[in-house]
Amino acid sequence: MSAEETLSGRTIAVTAERRAHQQVRYFESRGATVRWVPVVRTIEPTDRAEVAAATAQIAIDGIDILIAHTGQSLTWWLDTVATATRPQLDDALQNARVFTRGSKASSAARRAGLHVDWQAPNEVVDDMVDLLRGMDMTSLRCAVLLDGNDERPVVEMARARGATVIELDVYRYGLPEECSDIDKLVSDIVAGDIDVVTFTASPAIRHLRSLAATTGRSADLDAAFSTVCRPAVVGPVCAATATAASWGQIIEPATARLIPMLDAVVEALAST
Hints:
Elements: E1 11-14, H1 20-28, E2 33-36, E3 41-43, H2 49-61, E4 65-68, H3 71-80, H4 86-94, E5 97-100, H5 103-111, E6 116-119, H6 125-133, E7 141-146, H7 152-160, E8 164-169, E9 172-174, H8 180-191, E10 196-199, H9 202-214, H10 218-224, E11 230-233, H11 236-244, H12 258-270
Parallel strand pairs: 1-2, 1-10, 4-5, 4-7, 5-6, 7-8, 10-11
Antiparallel strand pairs: 3-9
Helix pairs in contact: 2-4, 3-5, 6-7, 8-10, 9-10
């Protein structure tokens, strides 16, 4: 079988908003029928006054710890900083300890000229919570970059350990404005017409399940993801969300990256 026929006869749904075209091209080039149905919508704060004010205060007073969950959130935050504030902020961040949830956040931090003091070994929120649980954070100033992807336990633990927490709400995920395509996707998954659905963010899993629940099909959807359809997740955070929903047959790459996930889908389907 040629590479162009590897996924012939298979139907794959892509739920991502960003970089979806890369997934679509990858699967179509291998013969699959691809459905692009984004189930998340990135919402940037329309009023950045609070983020700007908090950032300006960090530039003046400094922080002891910066926690970055994703490379995107760190990059977007630094890109919003006023030109006049940036040199002072850079100086303040040089004196902060930087904790990251994964390699993408670490790479973004290093590109910004920051030293990464610690990276979560399993790239999950629980690692970060465990780290903070063992720290005395009394009187420490801790900035946490928020991106709507399960950071609340980190914020709560830092506060419980005595830190003053500065929340930087960089962006969050919302539902698409039009959900009829998602409703059809749920129907097709339940009917067994979709072989694999790819997920690159935990909110995509939660959104799909919540929309299924509005029509009384959440149990059917969860059952389908353990029988007739396989979820493919980009990394351990998504995998944990899928596992919490009792989904089975999860396709997860050894390396939490997009291309390894796509390769893992091909390998999984080629073996069945």
